[in-house]
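anyone seen this seq b4? input:
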Amino acid sequence: MKKTLAIVLLACFALNVSAAKKKAPAKDANKPVFTIVKENPITSVKDQNRSGTCWDYSTLSFFEAEILKSTGKTYDLCESFVANKTYMERAIQVVRFHGDCQFAQGGSAEDVLATMKQHGICPENAMPFPGSLYGDSLNNFGEFFSVLEPYVGAVAKSSAKKISNQWKVGLQGILDAYLGKCPEKFTYEGKEYTPKSFVNSLGINLNDYVSVTSYTHHPFYTAFAVEVQDNWRFPLSYNVPMDEMMEIIDNAVKEGYTIAWGGDVSEEGFTRQGLAYAVDTKKAESLSGSDMARWLKLTADKKRNIIDSLGCNVPEIVPTQQMRQERFDNWELTDDHGMLIYGVAKDQNGKEYYMVKNSWGESGKYKGIWYMTKAFIAANTMDFLINKNAIPAKIRQKLGI
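predicted toks r here
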């Protein structure tokens, strides 16, 4: 009897296993499966929330990684400190130009570097937590900039023959009300610092950082200010051919460095699920079963859904120097986001991707990390901040650094 029962139970188990196998979903050959080639240490993913401060978050993340590489210590540096100083300095420039330049939430990596050089920096907990001063849990610049922009505009476009410096006092009050006052002194791990003494204690040399770009409207191996509105400080970027630009990124990751990347993520190939491809739309539309006329009529979200469904088998363009220049000149290649490149991975087909830290919280399939193909980065890079020691010696020699 026991033997018969055991046989019946075994048969039932076998049937259940067989049924489970039949019900198991088939593997999606389009879904990328990543193997890490090189991953450099970074700090935690942050959330800029409803603020145009990707430049702030990505660049401070870059410096946190630089400190981590140099000293082994983990810091959480304060974005509000940088924003407070930067918006005041940008407003001063707008007023000096009588409003003939842009005042906006955006910025560049240079804003963070310039702030740290001139004013120093403080840890995150030395200022109010983002959003807390106006009852939010994270940054929300809706009300803040609806007050700030008209204020700056009113001063910059004033018909007065002479203005007083009191407008700066008023502006500082707005900045402090929404971002918090920048501390003159604070205590960190039992020791008192000023922002300048704190930045000097971090174990990095702020003169080691340079910007790199790649365009043909200026000579290679010279430096120029990239002509985008948020580059309002007019810092110079070293101009190299596209292939060498990519060589610099690859060498940096290989040698344990990260890259504060600025570029275009408005392209259809940048999905909200953590992937970015330089999509060849002519090939993609045929693979998706639609003709080009239908493809062009699809919304950006529907195009991204198709791209997501094609996954690692999305056909990509081969970026060229000429393509980069044409897209920059016709406004297709824009400077709309800053992120942190920190590693390289490859998918099951052997295609290589950069591992990139975003500042949208733990969003997407990879909890705040994006996998962006090398073709996407080559096509969509505006410029990037990097430690000059991460640049290959032969390229440094050409640049004279």
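The first helix runs from residue 2 to 23. Residues 191 and 198 are 10 Å apart (CA to CA). kinda curious what u guys think
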